[in-house]
Amino acid sequence: MNFLICSTIWLLSVHLLRENMSCWGLRSADGTPDRPHSDPKYSWETLQRQKRNWVWNQFFVLEEYTGTDPLYVGKLHSDVDKGDGNVRYVLTGSGASSIFTIDEKTGDIHATKRLDREEQGYYTLHAQAVDSKTNAPVEDESEFIVKVQDINDNEPKFLDGPYTAGVPEMSPLGTMVVQVTATDADDPTYGNSARVVYSIIHGQPYFSVEPKTGIIRTALPNMDRETRNQYVLIIQAKDMVGQMGGLSGTTSVTVTLTDVNDNPPRFSRKSYQYSVLESVPVPSVVAKLKAADADIDSNAEMDYHIIDGDARGVFNITTDEDTQEGVIFLQRPLDYETKSSFSLKIEATNRNIDPQFLTFGPFSDTAAVKVIVEDVNEPPVFYPLIRKLMVSEAARVGTVIGMVSASDPDSSSSAIRYSIDRNTDLERFFNVDALTGVISTAKALDRELNSVHNLTILATENQDPSQVGRGIVLIRVMDINDNAPVFAIEYETLLCENAAPGQVIQTISAVDKDEPPSGHRFYFSLAFSASNNNNFTLRDNKDNTASVLTKHADFRRQEQSLYLLPVLIVDSGSPALSSTNTLSVRVCDCDVDGIPQACGTVAFSLPQGLSTGALLAILGCIITLLVLMLLIMAMLRRRKAPLFLEDERDVRENIVRYDDEGGGEEDTEAFDMVALRNLNIIRDSKVQDISPETASVYPYSASAISRTSYKTLPDNIVFQEFIWDRLKVTEVDPSAPPYDSLQTYAFEGNGSVADSLSTLELPSSDSEQSYDYLSNWGPRFKKLADLYGTDCELNVIVK
């Protein structure tokens, strides 16, 4: 209705001022006609700004129009239009034709679709008056805006909801919790459609919300998390400033009270009692106790301390960080016979104390703990636990080294027997007296093999053999001079042929397995057998080393390439020991810098003029000849005497390679029967080996075969006779290898007129299978009919 009134007012204004209009626009107050904004000569900056009676270039359309007729927007009119139909109005721009239509004759603009301001707030259109006949513009194009006027059709929405927030417990009244915000898609510049106020629907009296800002605050002081830790609020946002008829939206706010340290730790009891065996090892856990704290996380963390008691140094307490329990553990071994009970005073204190809650009381608590030690049957104990002894490596078997002692700590004081844990004395160097604990040698000792023996001595109670105590005995073997010195390393001495007299060619040193208290001192000299040699001399350097020097020059490898020099080494022990070591000196050919080039025996020299390449060529020829000889020998060794004649083996190989079916009688390329016709007559010795029973099977006798050439026989008879001869020779020869095998065709297939051809047998078979029907199958089966007919039986032998 408002829109219709505005449109009517606009039409009346246009009609009243029509006489003053030069084209589209209204005249301004000074009579100057309006021009399109696109003309720079008449831009608003160049014109004098004066108040207008009417703004014609903006129309208003109410959104969400639900009428059935098109909504009237406004009317365009030109002074040129005399009402005779010569002027036509054209509308272009956003929404033209699809949303807005114009009557070409009258200039009336209508909206044909329902508009939504939240989708598009305004439309920019262009109007043009043209000649209806020539379409030539009669007025300049003008731009105007159709603005969609808002109605309250969108409720407020909490885009970030639902909300979660936290506030510390015990917070004062009015503490801010969280701020919620609702948005309204309606036009905030028009009316109250987008003006939102907030209210709390659910959550009172604990919380409140500010109507304009949406800030939620605590409405009660000192809310206790331990009583209730979570609240769910329902907040409403309503437009139209909350007035009747406004639209509203809601969201939920989950408020969690966060913990503060407002609860001190408290033991559930004032005294505790625990029992522990005296045999528990250090640092075993003796007991656990816990002070309850209603707070959580870091506010419930606490420390435990032993603040009093008669067990100082025996027990200690620590905090289990996972369970916040006080863990009492053992620091020193317990002894029931010494002290059977202990009293402790334990204090539990909060680790993180908030000063603002100190008025709630002391954040600590104490409890008395009594620990009772229970007696157990303990194993014997050695005094001392580790004993150190010494023995000379020259000690005789049975020498007493020392003794160990153990006692039963229990009141029963059981008798004890001693023994050695043989896992610590595998070679049984020592013995221990079972009653007295005296340790003695059982074998000769050698310090160089084992200088320290670590023995475990077992002490077992006679009354209870399961009670075994263990003690450690460290026996150190003292050294005697029983090893002669030797060369420190295996020396390799090289002597240049051009060495000068008195030149040091080697410096030697020695080692000794013994370890004298004052250290080693070695003396070097040439052995008596080499003391008068004319080539080398030895000089003792007095620092456990010696130098070997040449006596003359001009050493020659051709004369002597190796010298063996015996060296006598004596130690400083008591008694002194010595050994003779041989030093090998090799004579070498050296360069000008004295670097050896060739040592030892003079090698054979090549003939003058024979190069290294020629020598390699000769060596290659020799290797090639050797390889050829080996191949020839290998071929001769693999060659064996043939079982049959050479041409017969060729025939056998042809049969093996004949593996195609062929094309019957018309196929003359698959297999050549000429080879069978050119066979030599079978030797009489082979024919005579055929038994009479076998010979009776052939249509031709054996004597006839020996007298008749294969050339005179038909093809099928030749092939048959050849196969039978081969088979029979193999059967009667026990040493013949099994080259032949019987090939059985067990099944041909369903629906075959010939049924099965599986009755291919040896001569010993009694089969009466008839193959006469093969002759009725046509020319392609003539060969099979000849081979399997009544006059002939054939068994196929596959090589």
Summarize the structure in words.
The chain has nine helices and 43 strands. β4 (100-102) and β5 form a beta hairpin. The radius of gyration is 63 Å and the shape is extended. It has 799 residues and is mainly β. Mean pLDDT is 78; it is low at 1-55, 644-654, 676-711, 743-749, 758-766 and 792-799. The two termini are 116 Å apart. Strands 34, 36, 39, 40 and 41 form a five-stranded mixed sheet that branches. It has a four-stranded mixed sheet with strand order 1-7-6-3. 12% of the residues lie in helices and 31% in strands. Residues 1-25 form the signal peptide. Its main location: other. Pfam families: CADH_Y-type_LIR, Cadherin. It is a single-pass type I membrane protein.
Rg from Cα: 63 Å
Structural class: mainly beta
Percentage of β-strand residues: 25-35%
Major beta sheet summary: 5 strands, mixed
| Count of helical stretches | 9
Residue stretches low in confidence (pLDDT < 50, at least 5 long) are 1-55, 644-654, 676-711, 743-749, 758-766, 792-799
Shape: extended
Report how far apart the termini are. Answer: 116 Å
Determine the mean pLDDT.
78
Percent helix among the residues?
10-25%
Total number of β-strand segments?
43
Membrane topology: Single-pass type I membrane protein
GO molecular function: beta-catenin binding; cadherin binding; calcium ion binding
InterPro entries: Cadherin, Cadherin-like_dom, Cadherin-like_sf, Cadherin_CS, Cadherin_Y-type_LIR, Catenin-bd_sf
Pfam families: CADH_Y-type_LIR, Cadherin
